[in-house]
Amino acid sequence: MKDKRKITISKIVTPLLQYSNAPTKGQSLHILQRFNLSLWLSLFCLILIGCQTASSDAERKYPVELTWQRFSVEYQALCLQTYHLAWEAVKSRTASMDKDWAVVLDVDETVLDNSRYQEILHEKNEKFNYYWDGWVKEENCPPVPGAKAFIDSVRSLGKFAHVVYITNRNQNLEEATRNNLKKVGLWKDGDVLMCQKDRSDTKELRRNEVVNGTNRCEGLGQRIIVARIGDQLADMEAYPENVSPDDYRKHYDKIDQWGTAYFMLPNPMYGYWERGYNR
Q1: Residue 141: Cβ within 10 Å count
Q2: In this model, does residue 262 exceed pLDDT 60?
């Protein structure tokens, strides 16, 4: 920005200085003209620099979605509300269940808060996935409000209760993810963490492994998924193949799992919605 500013100002200043050096008929008049011109030139340059600086500052303004996610009470309240509703639904649904069941949770913006990472992207003027692996390996994400209380409550329901994390973090980040979950009290021996092997390794595929006790869940037995919690539609179910993204709102308005088996957390920072759900 500074180089562009120098170039812009120099294009304006140079011809004016050339004019200011032009001969005049009288020495007094000549001095007065040069003084006035210098004064106006200095004022003009200051205004120009100020305008460009203000424009630059406006371009780097702290994003409103980050302000809301990191500092608003409303964000916290929505998370607590969602987890409270999920707990009441899980408790009711499993009250007389005598077989293994699980709650399936996403990780990012569901149990671990990455808003500081989004803030780093803003500070560096970068986009995902700049420093993403490094950020995850720092293992410093705090828990999303309400997540720990919900998970602790689920564990209290006895031997049939299980916690499963399904995330699209790459497989090479599994250890760091598990370590972060441990640090904030969200991990216990017996929990399941399923990172993504590649793009074909969808969340729906991994949920089926939980239900059927296959592949990565081999030996764990079949488990009924009683609740799905996340911040994206894909955390609930596969995107419908026969529905246009333009009609998603109508489609998801008609399903009756919201608040009973599907629980959505707020995330205004990123998601498939940014590109019209085009995958």
Answers
A1: 23
A2: yes
Q: Count other Cβ atoms within 10 Å, centred on residue 137.
A: 16
Distances from the Cα of 4 to the Cα of 8, 125, 145, 188, angstroms: 6, 18, 45, 55
Summarize the confidence of residues 260-274 as an average pLDDT: 97
Decide: helix, strand or coil at residue 218.
coil
Cα dihedral 187/190/191/194 (nearest 10): 130
| Tokens 């539609």, located at residue | 233
Instruction: Tokens 């999920």: give the residue.
Output: 86
CA 23 – CA 34 distance, rounded (Å): 10
Quick one: the chain helix, strand, coil %, rounded to 5? Answer: 55, 10, 35
Q: Which residues pair with 165 in a beta bridge?
A: 105, 193
* H or E, element range at 171: none
Question: Which of 184, 183, 180 has its CA nearest to residue 193?
Answer: 180
Q: Dihedral, CA atoms, 72, 77, 78, 79, nearest 10 degrees? A: 100
pTM: 0.80
- Per-residue model confidence (pLDDT) at position 35: 47
CB 83 within 8 A of CB 148: no
Q: How far apart are CA 192 and CA 95, in angstroms?
A: 23
φ, ψ of residue 102 in degrees (nearest 5): -145, 150
Rounded Cα gap, residues 171 and 206, in angstroms: 13
Write down the H helix ranges in the chain.
Answer: 2-20, 27-59, 64-71, 73-93, 115-124, 132-138, 147-155, 174-183, 203-212, 248-254
The SS3 of residue 163 is: strand
Contact 169, 195 (CB under 8 A): yes
